[in-house]
Amino acid sequence: KMAAAAGAAAAAGLWSEVNRCGQNGDFARALKSVNKILQINKDDVTALQCKVVCLIQNGNFKEALGVINTHTKVLTSDVIAFEKAYCEYRLNRIESALKTIQSASQQTDKLKELYGQVLYRLERYDDCLAAYRDLIRNSQDEYEEERKTNLSAVVAAQSTWEKVVPEDLGLREATYELCYNSACALIGQGKLNEAMKKLQKAEELCRQSLSEDSDVTEEDIEAELAIIHGQMAYIMQLQGRTEDALQLYNQIIKLKPTDVGLLAVIANNIITINKDQNVFDSKKKVKLTNAEGVEHKLSKKQLQAIEFNKALLAMYTNQADQCRKLSASLQSQSPEHLLPVLIQAAQLCREKQHAKAVGLLQDFADQHPANAAEIKLTMAQLKIAQGSVTKACMILRSIEELQHKPGMVSALVTMYSHEEDIDSAIEVFTQAIQWYQQYQARTNHGCSVFQPKSPVHLSLIREAANFKLKHGRKKEAISDLEELWKQNPKDVHTLAQLISAYSLVDPEKAKVLSKHLPSSDTMSLKVDVDALENSHGATYVRKKAGKLTGDNQQKEQGQGEVKKKKKKKKGKLPKNYDPKVTPDPERWLPMRERSYYRGRKKGKKKDQVGKGTQGSTTTGSELDASRTASSPPTSPRPGSGAAVSATSNVIPPRHQKPAGAPATKKKQQQKKKKGAKGGW
Predict the structure, then answer these.
(1) pTM for the complete prediction?
(2) Which domains does the chain have, with CATH numbers?
């Protein structure tokens, strides 16, 4: 009895120590006292609960969960459900935490709070939203602001990842967390300018709230603002301001924030900006996405986007095996997703295996008909890149859900026109128009009452008619033009086209239709001519036109005077003009440009002086004056057909046309060459 009394006294002292340490927040000392109590009584339920709490407060979640699992007989689910679920949640065993919460017999407020967190991590946003609404409705304590913040975070996640239009929760955005979540919801809706204003307000509120604490430094404030600045940079990136976004991203990385999720997202966004450029920087940034714990901080779609970008980066860095490995892994995780197979096809194209890439895409389209449209568009693009335009058209026409779309019709008509296949282009128009006719019949439920056609339908008919008229298919265009005129009898342009088409096919019909054209009186515009001419713009144009007109008149008068002077002049004949001799056809050319020009004869003998060996003199024969033009040369001149003797019957140069023109041209070329500068 005395021993039992001593043990009870010791236990009481230890319990008082545990209570004092718990109030002071010294859970390490409290844990020591709890362990001493358990040495006295190892199955003490209260002591075991205190030990689990002390371990949780010290961050030893794994050890705390081990204590719970080893004492399951004592620590039942009703006693320790919250602590067990919380340990599993912190150890990222989210599914186990959900099962623990759901198996608890009594759903306490603590379990409901944790239940909302678990649902958010599991991305079950609808259930999470309902859980937080129930908590806010049925709770009144100092944590109401935190619950509203969590509720706004759920709405932001729905808007971002599920593209759900968020409902107005009526929350007063008094804290920077609420402003930040509201901005994220606006980003999900594409309202980027409004989201930027919300983020600026969140930044201002954050600075105000943190500056009130004297212990908080400027570095601490910047670290807290990092996530807000990250969203600002993301908005800039979406708006195309990539340089500003990149600068802000790098500033955040320099701060070295402790949030690995934030760093991973920023690094991924920088990689998307770099694309196939600045690959070395991208390879450094991709290491931040591989940090420990990133997979628990980001959503599934964020992690998936990072993996896609890793595969693309491997392709851009010519790591073909790594690219195939990553894309195959992504495809196994998401068999119906398009990007993995598109990345594989792109890698095959880089390896010049276009046929294999098309086959890969075709297999995917056959296996997943729901995604076949986008895959077939890619296949058509590959065919166009190979120059197989006709095959690309066949692939595009096989996409039934896009055949009637104006963009698809335009693309097919353009490609068929490029291939000069006008019949196929007209067939594309016909099929699209028929689709709209059938759609109209379905929507009218067989009603015989005349219904106006949709603007897209009328636009297709008009484009078809214009195309047929352009390519000379007037007979085929008539039915389209009549349909358009029937829809709008006041359309004068369509009526004019219809008359023009009938004029070549049925002139009588064209005459009948021409009676529907408005008269010239009805088409005249009621314009106040005086007011129009007195307007400022008309006055300026009139003055400018007047100046130009005056200049033109002066020029015309001057030209008229010149013409009159030319008419007054009488033609002069040369002194040696002989009407019996045919005039020289080259008489209007300058002397140097005539075929019989021989050059100047002056200085001919001077050119010969100094030629020969040094110190030699000219012989008498060279200076003999008896060798005149009357003496026939010993040999003909180069290029001349025959020697021409100088007789008394010499024809004047203006009337004669001697042979030897080629030789003269050669001499002219030689003279031109003499003027050129030579080089060593």
Answers:
(1) 0.66
(2) 1-106 (1.25.40.10), 415-517 (1.25.40.10)
